[in-house]
Amino acid sequence: MRIHTDEIINAVCLHMAERRGVSPSDVEVQLAWEEEYGFTAEVWVQGRSQYLVESNLLEAIEQYMYKEYNRRVFRSQITIDADEDFWADIED
Protein backbone atom coordinates (compact mmCIF):
# COMPACT_ATOMS: atom_id res chain seq x y z
CA MET A 1 0.00 0.00 0.00
CA ARG A 2 1.19 3.51 -0.71
CA ILE A 3 0.05 6.79 0.81
CA HIS A 4 1.01 10.11 -0.73
CA THR A 5 1.85 13.62 0.46
CA ASP A 6 -1.69 14.62 1.45
CA GLU A 7 -2.18 11.55 3.61
CA ILE A 8 1.24 11.92 5.24
CA ILE A 9 0.37 15.53 6.07
CA ASN A 10 -3.03 14.40 7.39
CA ALA A 11 -1.28 11.79 9.54
CA VAL A 12 1.03 14.41 11.05
CA CYS A 13 -1.84 16.90 11.56
CA LEU A 14 -3.96 14.32 13.36
CA HIS A 15 -1.01 13.13 15.45
CA MET A 16 0.05 16.62 16.52
CA ALA A 17 -3.54 17.75 17.15
CA GLU A 18 -4.07 14.82 19.47
CA ARG A 19 -0.81 15.47 21.31
CA ARG A 20 -1.48 19.21 21.67
CA GLY A 21 -5.21 19.04 22.34
CA VAL A 22 -6.17 21.18 19.36
CA SER A 23 -8.21 20.67 16.22
CA PRO A 24 -6.38 19.14 13.22
CA SER A 25 -7.30 22.26 11.26
CA ASP A 26 -5.12 24.26 13.71
CA VAL A 27 -2.01 22.35 12.58
CA GLU A 28 0.08 23.23 9.52
CA VAL A 29 2.74 20.87 8.16
CA GLN A 30 5.52 21.25 5.61
CA LEU A 31 7.44 18.10 4.67
CA ALA A 32 11.10 18.22 3.70
CA TRP A 33 14.06 16.02 2.91
CA GLU A 34 17.54 17.09 3.97
CA GLU A 35 20.70 15.16 3.28
CA GLU A 36 21.93 15.64 6.84
CA TYR A 37 18.66 14.82 8.66
CA GLY A 38 16.64 12.71 6.24
CA PHE A 39 12.88 13.24 6.16
CA THR A 40 11.61 16.00 8.43
CA ALA A 41 8.53 18.14 8.87
CA GLU A 42 8.12 21.64 10.17
CA VAL A 43 4.87 21.85 12.11
CA TRP A 44 3.06 24.97 13.26
CA VAL A 45 0.53 24.69 16.08
CA GLN A 46 -1.07 27.87 17.37
CA GLY A 47 1.71 29.99 15.89
CA ARG A 48 4.56 27.92 17.36
CA SER A 49 6.97 26.04 15.14
CA GLN A 50 8.39 22.59 15.83
CA TYR A 51 10.56 20.26 13.75
CA LEU A 52 9.80 16.56 13.56
CA VAL A 53 12.40 13.99 12.53
CA GLU A 54 11.75 10.83 10.53
CA SER A 55 10.95 8.69 13.58
CA ASN A 56 8.18 11.16 14.51
CA LEU A 57 6.78 10.93 10.97
CA LEU A 58 6.82 7.14 11.13
CA GLU A 59 4.97 7.23 14.46
CA ALA A 60 2.31 9.52 12.96
CA ILE A 61 1.92 7.22 9.94
CA GLU A 62 1.63 4.15 12.22
CA GLN A 63 -1.20 5.76 14.17
CA TYR A 64 -2.89 7.05 11.02
CA MET A 65 -2.87 3.60 9.42
CA TYR A 66 -4.45 2.12 12.54
CA LYS A 67 -7.12 4.81 12.96
CA GLU A 68 -8.01 5.35 9.29
CA TYR A 69 -7.45 1.89 7.78
CA ASN A 70 -7.69 -0.34 10.86
CA ARG A 71 -4.26 -1.74 10.00
CA ARG A 72 -1.61 -2.35 12.64
CA VAL A 73 1.74 -1.55 11.04
CA PHE A 74 5.18 -1.10 12.52
CA ARG A 75 7.94 1.35 11.63
CA SER A 76 9.94 -1.42 9.99
CA GLN A 77 7.09 -1.82 7.48
CA ILE A 78 7.07 1.86 6.45
CA THR A 79 9.44 3.39 3.91
CA ILE A 80 9.24 7.12 3.20
CA ASP A 81 10.56 8.38 -0.13
CA ALA A 82 10.31 11.43 -2.38
CA ASP A 83 11.06 12.87 -5.77
CA GLU A 84 8.75 15.75 -6.74
CA ASP A 85 6.20 14.38 -4.25
CA PHE A 86 6.42 12.52 -0.94
CA TRP A 87 5.03 9.03 -0.36
CA ALA A 88 5.21 6.21 2.13
CA ASP A 89 5.14 2.56 1.13
CA ILE A 90 3.60 0.27 3.74
CA GLU A 91 4.43 -3.43 3.51
CA ASP A 92 1.75 -6.02 4.22
Automatic annotation (TrEMBL):
Pfam families per UniProt: DUF2653
Designated name of the protein: YxcD family protein
Annotated organism of origin: Paenibacillus spongiae
Source species taxonomy: Bacteria, Bacillati, Bacillota, Bacilli, Bacillales
